[in-house]
Amino acid sequence: MTAPVRDGQVVAAKFFGSFVFYLVLWAPSLLYFVIFRWLTGHSAADAFGSYLGAYSMLILVGMFYLSIGCLASALTKNQIVAATIAFALISLMFSLVCFPSFSSRRARRCASSRIIFRPLSTWGSFRGVSSTRARSSST
Asked: φ and ψ at 58, to 5 degrees?
């Protein structure tokens, strides 16, 4: 590279550039709430916390997948190969959900640690972590 930047700065700029693009793609979905209120005169739902939780999980999972894409891009100079590697890694993580539990102790331990690689199935773990109900003051 001829520019006076480090490789880490290039990778970080690529990640944050793609992350901003990812956020811009999701931004129009926030207009749905405004349009719903305008058409019906009612709020879509009064559970701001659930919307915040859903959007934060979308952002976290998106950042995870973008980081896999940046890793694949850093491993090779060919964009097609990088896209294939990223697609294969993400598909592998989705397919880990389908592996059955094995009978050996080592395989069961490996199967129990699959939760790390299952981002969509961990959404259920966040159920009930934060309450969206108004707290009643008992004075």
From this structure: -60, -40
